[in-house]
Specification:
By secondary structure, the protein is an alpha+beta fold. The protein has one domain. The chain has six helices and eleven strands. The protein has a seven-stranded antiparallel sheet with strand order 5-4-3-2-1-8-9, with helices on both faces. The longest helix has 54 residues. It is elongated.
Amino acid sequence: MTTLLPQIRRARGFTLAELMVAMAITVILMTLLVSVTAVALDGWRVSRNKVRASRQAKATLEQMSRDFEAMVVRTGTNFEWLYTETDPDDPGPNDNESPNAARILMFSAATDRYDGDVEGRNDKGGDVTGLSYKLLYKDPITDAYDDRFSVFALYRKLVNPDETFEFLLEHDPVDPKDLDTKFRRYDAELGDSDNFVCENIFEVSVVFTVEYTELVGGRLVTKIERIPIIRTGGEEAAETFSFTGNGIKVDDDDSVEFGRGRISSVDLSITVLTDGGIAQLRRGGNFTGTALEKFLSKNSFQYSKTILLPQP
């Protein structure tokens, strides 16, 4: 008797050529997927940085605008009401300091005087406050000057009216003290966390517009002069600008042709770095000249605003 065994069909596997084709297709698909994901992430990162920088810039410019719009000046005395300079401290990591860090000292009827309790229990009737803006390179969380965690941060010191009247508005007509000297008493407090305004601000630039009259051909002609307080601004730029009750001084010179003019407006400009830009500065490498321009074009956003100033 013959027994019929079921025929077992031999399973056929993939050939080497088929495996290689499948692997190639998989690699191509994965490469495309990674590329698309990387492009999407880069786009998201750029958008996030732009939105974050825009929010920071808007908040900073709005704060500074309110202070300048309420700026207090008086004419007829040699008292100094406004002082701006390119900061000699050059905040920033080694060899990558901020090229334009304006330091601003002024008086203003700030709306957040008396810790925001205007017309409240703490309000003693004063309306003039001393204000100081300064760019520092430090850790805004721990208040430490540690390069590992430091960032460019803008600080604003507000001196309440009572203290302003006692220490900043004190005036000796024979031997008057300038604002720079008077505000030195607050230098140690300026970097406190309570005075923090915004981080990642690499540059703070100020341009004042001055209107003055000049006799031309027997007629008074109104002229306009723009004075940038920018270290890298060329011959027309100044390193210090001040306004006293008797006129305007530029680089301690009160004989400028517009010395008896009025400050009609101020242009504020700030450059906000991305987080990646801050990281590059920390890693080192000297960004100057063309290298700095390329670095800023890839890692920063610039915002500006023109503010009309009150007239005395």
